Amino acid sequence: MTSADGTPAGPPEPPPDAAAPASTLAFVESPVQLLNVLEWAYHTARRSGPHPAPPPGAQPPGAPPPGAQPPGAQPPGAPRPWCDGVPRQPGARDITPLAGDLLVVVLAPHDPMTRGQLRRMAELARDQGHRLRWEEARGGPMAPVGTIGGLAGPLRAARRVVIGDPFSRYVQLLLTITRARELVVVDDGTATMEFAGQLARGERLVRWHRSGTRGARDLMFAPVSASMRRKLTPDDRRTVEIFTAMPLDAPPGVTVTANDFAWTRAAHGPPSLTRGTDLVGTSLVETGVVDPERYLEAVAALARAHGATRYFAHRREAPDKLRRIAERLGVEIVRPTLPLELVARRGPIGRTVLSFPSTVVHTLPLALAGTGVTVAVCDVDPAWLTAHASPRAEGFLAGVTGSAREVRRLPYAPVPQPRVAEGTP
What we know:
Helix content is 34%, strand content 16%. It has helices at residues 31-48, 92-95, 112-127, 143-157, 169-175, 191-201, 216-231, 262-267, 292-306, 319-329, 340-346, 360-367, 393-402, and strands spanning 24-28, 102-107, 131-135, 160-163, 182-186, 239-244, 255-258, 273-280, 308-312, 332-334, 349-355, 374-378, 408-410. Strands 3-2-1-4-5-6-7 form a seven-stranded parallel β-sheet, with helices on both faces. Strands 10-9-8-11-12-13 form a six-stranded parallel β-sheet, with helices on both faces. α4 (143-157) crosses α5 (169-175) and α5 crosses α7 (216-231). The protein is globular. Mean pLDDT is 80; it is low at 2-12 and 51-99.
């Protein structure tokens, strides 16, 4: 496997920036959420000033030619210090005007791969001039108490709060404190589609891949979840905006703003293209939705049919599953150090990118607009689903595929059916 980011090696955890008051607080728990906060900040700044979006494929002002090493850049793999003096991409300050007084709070997770990507996304955010506050929100039994207590003052003072995961119990607890008059939800992948639908229908907030049963923790958090749903319902005291790349209908009173990945296109690329085909992995096995053996067979069938040479792993994919994919197919397993939209935009990337139903079938066509890359999506055969998959899983995955724009649809991967012993009815 190529570089597995998130291991103990690499830069240390970033220290919190100076705790100056901020009118806008953003809470993120994943690299994709932080990327979409940067996209929202860029969009908001452009909307408030004369900063036209660059055409697809345009080079950033002052950026080196594709493939050239920026002046002062460190060698590949060298750690960069967590300080304000890190080398910056030429033109980065020029193409990303700051969106007011923004403080990004990272509620750090346990997963090492996610932490590694968040560290590098935090570097990019600081390169753009944003302030960050890294919270070890899950660092021990008393960590949530300390985190929530330390953020209570800034939350009460903030005029606007941006969140990346409305299903997060941590975020739901934090929002019980805020008096913000503006709430913004940025994408946390395809879950945004389910969130918008549940909000419109007045349903309780629950992730699409969760079963319908409610455990003791769900019952305990029910009042908090209900409070969260009320806060995300606009009224005469509060506005709500969803900043999204997903196709969805606006819940009553909610403003939906399109995320076209303008910052990603402006600050990165265009990429060089390889002659091969790349395959994007998913965490459908890890979330208990798809049977592991059926998934491996589907990946093998797609790789053979389309000549895939690289497999871009999802940050939550299990190492043992990735090892089996590498051994069975002989493909290169890539563990991205940044969200795939940025990795693909920086390149090199295949001329064709294959994926199962996931966020990237909506975001990659936007991030790679004008580059000539074809994004193709393969449906998940209902026969691949586990017995424990949520009843909503089949319909949700079909909706993710069916609503994707600017992608090529592929039929189900030809997965061999299990043999039936002779004499079995």
